[in-house]
Every structure is written in structure tokens, then in C-alpha cells.
Prior knowledge:
By secondary structure, this protein is α/β, with parallel strands linked by helices. It folds into two domains: 6-172 and 215-241, Rossmann fold, CATH 3.40.50.720; 174-212 and 244-319, Rossmann fold (3-Layer(aba) Sandwich). Helix content is 43%, strand content 16%. It is built from eleven helices and twelve strands. A seven-stranded parallel sheet has the order 3-2-1-4-5-6-10, with helices on both faces. Strands 7-9-11 form a three-stranded mixed sheet. Strands 8-12 form a two-stranded parallel ribbon. Helix 1 (14-27) links the parallel strand 1 (6-9) and strand 2. Helix 1 packs across helix 7 (216-228), helix 2 (57-67) packs parallel to helix 4 and helix 6 packs parallel to helix 8. The termini are far apart. The model has no long low-confidence stretch (mean pLDDT 95). It binds 2-amino-3-ketobutyric acid. 2-amino-3-ketobutyric acid (AKB) binds at residues 79-80, 118-120, 143, 170-172, 183-185. Residues 6-235 form the NAD-dependent epimerase/dehydratase domain. This is NAD-dependent epimerase.
Amino acid sequence: xxxxxxxxxxxxxxxxxxxxxxxxxxxxxxxxxxxxxxxxxxxxxxxxxxxxxxxxxxxxxxxxxxxxxxxxxxxxxxxxxxxxxxxxxxxxxxxxxxxxxxxxxxxxxxxxxxxxxxxxxxxxxxxxxxxxxxxxxxxxxxxxxxxxxxxxxxxxxxxxxxxxxxxxxxxxxxxxxxxxxxxxxxxxxxxxxxxxxxxxxxxxxxxxxxxxxxxxxxxxxxxxxxxxxxxxxxxxxxxxxxxxxxxxxxxxxxxxxxxxxxxxxxxxxxxxxxxxxxxxxxxxxxxxxxxxxxxxxxxxxxxxxxxxxxxxxxxxxxxx
Length: 320
Ligand code: AKB
């Protein structure tokens, strides 16, 4: 039997660090190669690590053939806010990266591919509350356009070549192990670091900006559960809506304030406000629940408690 051999591309990023760890636990540390354009970090410290630019298709193909890769997790991407600063580069990285992976996976007859999409595929024309799975929408950012187009490419490779590519539309992800970079939802991570360090935070989104969010342990579990689901159960071959919680900056601030008494939250909205205003308030993930029994575990209270406990522990460890 063909043993699972995994390649995680973008392994040093916010999702990559934790997903690489989870996949190593599941398949064994020598069955998972971490790859990133960056120098090694947590994902590459101890085990297999390759420096890889996903837009270099011949290197990707060579690596997959030499290592007999059977599954790719493609996490390398430019997010919404950085993408608006350099739309051409965002398009090139996000689209060329995906097309290279799909093509190489098909050529190497891989078992499965995972690729994350985002709530950024939805624009102002989509219903803001409980945004349904199948809603033709006009994204407001280059990042959103690349995710919407990427979803169609995943569908195309599945239909045309039978490539088992699976995808989730992630909301804003909150984590303590590794920081996000370049997203509109990043405030929901930054706020914890500033609350603990300074007791205050200057938020780049204004009060009342409701956005869908998810704690990283739920997100990692969602990827593993989706990838384990029987192929015949999966009716969505673009990307699944996924939901856990929704909140505004002031609601998150108030919850943090329950743990850090005199926490102060101020606001100075910037260009990211316009992006956030086009995204849904909440997401309907009915199809994910029905098809592969998705259920989130962390709500706002549990997430805030866990984030603060872990960040406090990590700060005292680094001081010791
Ligand atoms: C971003 O803010 O760009 C991302 C996302 C919602 O996809 N976190």
C-alpha cells in the first residue's frame, strides 16, 4: 500500500506551523515535509524542511517525484490587506501557486490536496447574515478574487481529472503559536498581545464591525476531519463554508477586559475597514455539518480564556 507522504507548503505561516505539527502527529514526523519560502522556523526546526517557492513549478515537481508525495497542503498565500498593497504580486502568488500545485498533484497522481479558501470570496452583494454556501458573489479584494477563482479551479480539477482536492472557506483565524500576517482580521490576534504587554490596544477596525472568526484548534481539526471524510460524502468541490463565532472589536475587548481589569480599547480605522465592511457578519455552514459532521468547539469565552492562558504561560517561559 502507498504510504501517506505529506508536503505542507507555507509551513512557517499562521496555519502552517500548527497544521504541520498536527500532521506529524497523525502520520509520523518523517512522513511530513515542511516547505516555505522563508528560512526555517518552528515548522522546520527539527524535522524535514525544504526552502521552496511555490511559483517554481519545476522544483515543486522534482521534489514531489523524489519524495513520492501523496498529499499536498497548500497554505502559501498573500492575505487581504497585503494583497491590496500589491495586487499583481498577490494574484501571481495565489493563482500560480495553486495552479502549480493542482497540476503537479495531477501529474504525480496524488491521493489528495488541501487548499484554504476564505470568507473573502463574499462581497457586498452576498447576504451579510448567515451567508449561505452557494452564493454567487463579487469579492472586493484581489485576495477574494484569487480565492473565488481558485475555488473554480479546484472544482475543475476534480471534475476533469478526478483530483481529490478539498477546501474550506476560513473565517478570521485566532492563534497564539504563530502570528497572522497581512489580513483584515489580524486585529483579533494583535489585541491579545497588546492587552498583555500594555493593557491597551488601538484597533484598526471601528466598533460595530462584526466578522466571522475561529480559534485555531477548531480550524486545524476542521482540516483533518475534512481530509478524512469519505470522498463520496463531499458534495461541495469548490470550498465549504465554515463557522464558529462572530464578534465585533468591542465585544472581544469586553471579554478580554473580564480577565485584564483595566484593559483599554481605542479605535483608529484604516483602509482595512473598507475590506471588512464588504465581508459577511456570520456564515451558514450547514453543508459542512451535514456532509462531514463539522461542529465547532470554541466560542468567544473559551477562546479568550485559552488565548490569555497560553500567551501568559509563553511570556513567563521566555522570561525564565
Ligand atoms: C484575512 O483577513 O485576509 C484572512 C481571511 C479572512 O481570509 N484572515
